[in-house]
Amino acid sequence: DYLVTAGGRGVFIIDISNRTNPKIVSNVSIDAETVTGRQLDISGGVVYVGADGNYLYSIDISDPKNPVILDKVYTEGTNSVVVYGTYAYSLPRVSSWGFRVVDISNPSEMKVVETRYDLSGNDMDEGNGLLYTSEGAIISPIGGGELPLQISLIKVSSITENSAIISWQTNKPADSLVKYGTSPGNYSEQKYDSNPTKYHSIK
C-alpha cells in the first residue's frame, strides 16, 4: 500500500492504497538526487538510499508515517544501490570513486567491508543471484546464490466482524497463503493466491 521514492527534496513515503488519490504520508529531508540509476533499495522494514552525494543511509520505514534514520556510511558518489542478503552494493558513475560493499546485518551500524576501483555505471540490478551493471559487468555478490524467502511488514487492517485484510512483503516474488480459523491453533480455512508477487494482500 506504500510507494517509497527519493530525489533532491528527500525520501518520500506515499500511501497508494487509493490509486486515484495517492497521498504523501512522510518524508526524510536528505538530498537523494541522482543523475541516473536506482538510488534506493528496500530490505524488510529498512530503505537504503544514496544521499548527500557521498553517503548510504539506512532508514527504518516499518512505521511509514514516522521514518527514522538509523545510520549513514561513506560511499563516494553512489549512483545505484542494490541490497542482496545482508549486504548493500553501491555503484558509482566513475570507477575512481569506488564501488563499495556495505555490511547491513545491523542497519544501525553499517560497515564498508570492501572497496574496488574497477566498477562503475549508470545503473545496477540483481537477477538469479548475480548483480548486473549497465556497463556490462556481472558481479557475484557475497553469499551469492538463491536467497531464502524472507517475510516482513506483516499488517492486519480493515477488520470487521467477518473479515480482515492481511498484507505483507517478501524479498522476492512468491505466492500468497493465509490460513485462519475461529479458535486458537485450529486453522482449518485458507485463502490462496498463486500469482507471484513481493507485495501480498489477502482478504
Please count the beta strands (DSSP E, at least 2 residues each).
Answer: 17
Mean pLDDT: 90
Global structural class: mainly beta
Tally of contiguous helical segments: 0
Q: Calculate the terminal CA-CA distance, rounded to whole Å.
A: 14 Å
Report on the biggest sheet. 4 strands, antiparallel
Helix amount, in percent? under 10%
Strand content: over 45%
Please provide the ordered H/E string of secondary-structure elements.
Answer: EEEEEEEEEEEEEEEEE
Name the poorly predicted regions.
Answer: none
Globular, elongated, flat, extended or rod-shaped: what is the shape? globular
Strand order of the largest sheet: 4-5-6-7
Radius of gyration: 19 Å
List keywords for this structure.
203 residues; mainly beta; 4-stranded antiparallel β-sheet
